[in-house]
Amino acid sequence: MLTNGGPLHDELEEALSRHLGIPTAMLFNNGTIALMTALRMFDLPSGGEVITTPLTFAATAHAISWNGLAPVFADVSPDDLTLDPASVEAAITPKTSAILAVHVYGTVCDLDALQDIATRHGLPLIYDAAHAFGTTVSGRPIGTFGDASVFSFHATKLFHTFEGGLLATNREEDRQTIYYLRNFGIKNEEEVVGIGINGKMNELQAMIGLLNLPQVEDERQTRAKLRQNYKSFLSDLPGIRLQPDQPGVSNSEQYFALQIDPEKFGRTRDDVYEALKSMDIFARKYFHPICTDFEPYRGYPIHSVWPQPAVDLVKTRVLCLPFHGGVEEQDIAQIRAVFLS
Asked: Are 286 and 320 in contact (CB under 8 A)?
C-alpha cells in the first residue's frame, strides 16, 4: 500500500499526535494544502477578508487567495516580528472573516491578545505554525491555541517528511470534517458527501517521518548549543538585534534570525549576506521580499498603528544564519570573523 491511509501513515499520525500533545492531528502531503484546508474548514464567505502578516512565506497569503478569500495585511510588532495585535484590530472591517497569524522564526505570537480580538469579533483564529514544531508555552502545546494550527514538514524544517504537513485542532469532532476535506469528500466506496481535495500523505513520506521523529530532540539540542555559540559573539554588537527570549516558551530551534541596523552596525544586511556568500556560507534574507512586494499582492496596503509600517524597515534588516546540526566550529569561526571585522 502506497497511499490512502496506509499503516505507516497511521502510525506517524498517532506518533505526532502524542509528540505534539494535540488530540486531532492529521497528516497532509504538504503544509500549503493543510493551510488551505484549515481555512476551508470554517466555511468562510466568498470574498471574506482574512487578516495575516506580510512577513511570511508566500504560501500563507496564497492559501487565503486560493480559497476565494481576500488577504488583508497587518503590520508586525517591531519587538518580536509576529503579527501586531493593535494593527490587526485596526484592519478589521465588516468583511473580516478570520485571522491567520504566523509564529515567525519560531517566535510565538501574542496568543492572549490575538485570542481576545478573535473572541470579541467572533472570528476563527488560525495559526501558521510552520516554524514552531514542538513548541510549548508554559507547558501547553502550541498546536492547542486558537481554532486550528498548521505545521510544515518540508525538507528545510526541523522535523520533515521530505514534503508534508499537518493540520491540528483541539477538538476531536474536527477529525471527520478534516478527513473528508483531505480525501475528495469520500465517505465510502459509493458515497461522496462533500467537496474535498487530494491532501493525503503517502507511505514513503510517512516512512521518512517515522525515521526522523526519534532524532528531532537530539537535533534540537544541537541547534540550541549553536544558538548559544552565535549569541556569544552577537549579543553585544551594536546594531545587532536577536530574536527575543520568551519566558515559558520552549524554542523550536527552527531558525536563528537577527536584524542588522546599518547605522549602528556600520554595514547593511546585504553587505553581511554578500560577505558570507563569498565564503560559501549561505544565509537567507528571510523574508525578503515580503508578500506585498510580490506581483499578486503588490499595492495591497499594510494596516499599521505606526506612521510607517514596521515591516518595511524589518524586511531590509532580517538575516537568518545557517542553523542546523551540520554547522561546524570552523563555520562558526568564519561567521564570527565576518561580523567582527
From this structure: yes
Which secondary structure element, helix H or strand E, spans residue 150, and what is its range?
strand 148-152
Looking at residue 2, its amino acid is L
Which residues are CB-neighbours of 16 under 8 A, at least 6 positions away?
A: 22, 25, 27, 166, 209, 213
pLDDT 10s digits, 200-244: 999 999 999 999 999 999 999 999 999 999 999 999 999 999 999
By CB atoms closer than 10 A (0-12, 13-18, 19+), residue 300 is middle
Three-class DSSP category at 263: helix
Give residue-wise pLDDT tens across range 110-153. 999 999 999 999 999 999 999 999 999 999 999 999 999 999 99
Angstrom distances, CA of residue 59 to CA of 56, 112, 152: 8, 25, 11
- Rounded to two decimals, the pTM is 0.97
Residue-wise pLDDT for 174-191, tens only, equals 999 999 999 999 999 999
Other CB atoms closer than 10 Å to residue 160's CB: what's the count? 18
- Report residue 187: phi and psi, to 5°: -95, -40
Is the torsion defined by CA of 46, 49, 51, 55 positive or negative?
Answer: positive
For 87-147, list the strands marked E by DSSP.
Answer: 96-102, 125-128, 136-137, 140-141
Q: How far is CA 280 from CA 269, 330, 335, in A?
A: 17, 13, 11
- Asked if 164 contacts 3 with a C-beta cutoff of 8 angstroms, the reply is no
Residue 101, φ and ψ in degrees, nearest 5: -100, 160
